[in-house]
Amino acid sequence: MKHNLISNWQTEAGKEKDVILSSRIRLARNLKKYKFPNKSTESEKNELIGNLKSKLNFLINDGFDFYLMKDLDEIERLVLHEEHLISSAHTKSSATKALFLNNEKHISIMINEEDHLRIQILSAGLEFNEIWNQINQLDNQLDQKIEYSFSDKWGYLTSCPTNVGTALRASVMCHLPALVLSGRIDNILGAVGKFGLTVRGIAGEGSSTEAELFQISNQITLGFSENEIIDKLESVIQQIITEERKSREYLLRNSYQKLKDNVLRSLGILKYAYQLEEAEALKYLSRIKFGQDTNLIEEKLDQDLFRKLLFKIKDAHLQYNFDDQLEQRKLNIKRAEIIKSILNEE
Amino acid sequence: MLCERCEENEASVHLTRIINGQKEEIHLCEECARKSSQLNSDDTDLSFQSLLSGILNHKFSNKESSFLSNNGSQKLVCPNCGMSYYEFTEKGLFGCEECFDIFEQKLDDLFKRIHGNIRHNGKYPLSFQQKLEVESEISELKEEMETAVEKENFEKAAEIRDKIHAIKSDMEEDNNEA
User: Fold this and answer.
1) Distance, in angstroms, between A271 CA and closest chain B CA?
2) What are the Phosphagen kinase C-terminal domain coordinates in residue numbering (chain A) (predicted)?
3) A54 labeled binding residue
4) Which of A29, A64, A166, A332 sits most deeply, having the most CB atoms within 10 A of its CB?
């Protein structure tokens, strides 16, 4: 029997939705007295899972489900990864890993990832303050049931020195087509690095920038308060949003015909292609989102098309929704069918 | 344990390498280890061999090497999880909370390089907050007590002293329960 793992938080449009797809905050936490996962034995890891399952039992009443990763099949684990609910590492070595996942599927607590606990909350749009309040509250609830590894000098103690301190990583997924098309992206992203932030292209392997999707996150976790880290990240992101919008206006003024042609050709491909690879589909969907956000597409399309399809067209999602055994060629056909069916809905 | 190469002599050189989390161990006798360090031109794995060679050269020439000594930090080993400082620098991960105490001397430099900062400035766990609150209450009471002594109000000072004792013994009880 399949577990119900598909979220719908990302189909909602959030704040600054023309540029920001989603926001995420995660906290790394370890328990006192237990060795970190990279040094603990299988039985120590399983003891920790048992301990956390019983001590954090209140989460079940708060609308969370508990999963041993080994009880999920491979496709299900990959679906969770595609949903950004677990890391790639958490899809592997599943014998000693576990997960709390809330019913709305935007809050997850990974057990025995690089740290004992990786707590994270996702939200559509730019929503750091709201997510921080939520995750801070959840962290305090956990704190009442278990004793965290903590030092007054170095804060929350984590496996990796890059997480020590607040152990907080905040990130946004943003869509920056105009900065890419105008060639300004390298400059902007280079500047971002100077503020102690990291940028990486996301989406399909090797095709990261084709869909013009980027993840921006804080690098520094020690020496600043959680609010300072979030405020700094948000202020840089606000500037990137402004620059992206400026570039969109500039491109519309100076290369209107070329852009419109490009966007409509992308729409044509998605409407008529018989088979589409994941990266290819993402690239054209990204172009269509750009066309919708800049009113280059006159045709009436679902305004949340991109958000609705972003996860649905990924390989593991297709296999999960249709057939576990689908081979790549058939996946590509199925992907094209789904996109066509949504484009022809209205 | 016998040498993995000649399978005759007792292995006395043990090497571990970790690449992308994959651990690999090699056990050789001194003779084979010395040979293998000279034979590395046939081997595609130059870096590991040259590392091996580096170690052996230092070992056999009996010189203090930067690799082995480095102020003794390479010999630091966490007694709780078995993580050595060398393994920590290779893996880039602490093995447990005690590693932080064992490698303490090295950490300010490391954190300075990574974060540009060396002290936590964020939230505290609840247990820690309570501890801080109690500590600040005690220091306030101590001030009050000193003022009372200055004013020769010894009765009040004794009262405050008893209060401090009570708080402290409460705290110890809590610690013992934990």
Assistant:
1) 43
2) 19-247
3) no
4) A166
